[in-house]
Design brief:
This protein is of the alpha/beta class and about 475 residues long. Helices cover about 40% and strands about 20% of the residues. The protein contains 16 helices and 18 strands. Strands 10-11-16-15-14-17 form a six-stranded antiparallel barrel. Strands 2-1-3-4-5 form a five-stranded parallel sheet, with helices on both faces. It has a four-stranded parallel sheet with strand order 7-6-8-9. Helix 7 crosses helix 9.
Amino acid sequence: MDIMRKKIVFGVIIGVRGFFNPTLAVGDREALAKALDGLGIECVTLPPEATASGAIETQEDAAKLAALFRSRREDIDGIVVLLPNFGDEQAVAETIRQSGLRVPALVQASDDEVDKVDLASRRDAFCGKLSVCNNLRQYGIPFTDTSLHTCAVAGDGFKQDLKDFAALCRTVRGLSSAKIGMLGTRPAAFQTVRCSEKLLQASGIKVIPVDMSVIIAAAKQVGTDEGDYRETLDRIRAYADMDPKPEALEKIVKYTVAVERFVRDNGLDATAVQCWDSLQNNFGCGSCLTQSMMSDRLKPSACEGDVAGAVSMLALALASGQPAALLDWNNNYGDEPDVCVSTHCGNYPAGFMGVKPTVGVMGVLSSSIGAEVCFGAVKGKVRPGAMTFFRLSTEDTGGYIKAYVGEGEFIDKPFAMDGGIAVCGVPKMRKLFRFLCANGFEHHVAMSRTRTARILHEAATTYLGWRAYWHNMPEDLDVPLL
C-alpha cells in the first residue's frame, strides 16, 4: 500500500444518552459529513435508521457498529467519536473494543449554548467527554483530544482538528507498517548511526538490507536505450541545473534507475544509503541527486546508512505530506545563541529547499578520492520559512525508542560553505543541545518546511509508545501523565 496516496477513512461513533435530546445528533452528523467530504475523507458509520436513536447508545448499537468497523478494518485509519450530548461512555468504549481496531481515536464534545440549556436543548457533552475518556483509559484505548474541550462540529477549529487527525492517522499507520531499505552498510567511522532493527520491528518498522554491490551490478545492466533510462534522464534534466560530463550523467541515470527499481520491487517507503565511498570507488558517481529526487517524491532517502534517520524523514513526510531532508546539526552562527547552521553534502530535495537546486561535485569527499567520481551533490541554500525538526533513535541497552521534536525557522542569513546550507533559528537552542548531548542523540536530524510537532509528538508518545521530548512544547499541551 502506498500510504501517501491512500484515501483516509474514518470510522465514526456518534454517541448519545437518551434522557438528553438525541435529535441533537442529527445536525452534528450532517455537519461532520460535510466537513469530512470537504477534506476528502471517507466516513464509515451506521445509517440513522440502524438504531433507535439514530446514534450509538446501547450495547446492541455498539455491537452493530463494531461489526461494521471489523468489515472495514483494512481501510479504517482512525476513529472519530462525536458527543452531541452527554453520550454513553460504555457504548463508545465497547464499540472500539469489539471492533478490534488499533487505530487513533479522536474524541469530540459539542458546545452548549448559554441561552439553550433547557431540557430540549442542553447537551452536557462537556461532562460526558470526561466519562468517555475515563472509560477509554480503563479499557487501555489510547485517544486524542480536540484543541478545545468542547467545540462545534461545523466550526473552523474542529475542521482543523480533523485535518490534523488525518495527518496523525497517516503518520501512525505509515510508521507502524514501514519498510526501510538499507542500501549498503554504514561508513565505519559513523558509529553514531547504529540502531536496533529489533526495536524498530517491535513498532512495525522492517529493515530490508541489500549489499551496495548488488545495486551497482544492477546499475551496470541498465541500457541507455531503455524506457526507464530515457524517462529518468528527462526527469534529472528538469529537476536541477547542472553541467556534467556525459559519462558522469550516464552513471547517475543508471544508478537512479537501479535504486528506484529496488525501491519499487521491494515496496519500500524509505531508504538509508551507504552514500560514500563504495559507490564512488566502484561505480564512479555520487548518490546525492538520486536521494534528493526520491525524497522529493515522498520516498525519503537518508545518508550514511542512517536507518533511524530515514524513519525520521518518513515520519515528517507522513505528518506533512511534504518532502523532508536529513541534515547535520553542524555549525554555530557567530555568537547568536538561538541560531545554528545545518548542512549536508547535497541530499536535500528540491521541495525542501524551496528553490531549483544545482548539482555539482561532493566537496569534502572529492578532496580525498577525486572529483571525477564524486559528481552528484545537490547544492543550494534553503529558502526562509517554517521548519519542524524530528529525530528518533533506538536506546539499545535500555530496550526502547526515544525521539525529540520541535519547531523553528529557516533564516535568510549568509553562510559561505559548500553543499546544502540551512540557517536555522530555534528558541532556547542551548536547552535543546543540552538535551541532545545528555541523551546521546545523533548529529543527524530530519527537517521539513512545516509545523507538525504536535502531530509527531502525539504519534510517537500516544500511539507508538516511544519516549519523546517536545522542545518548547506549548504550555497548554504540557499535560503530565500519572
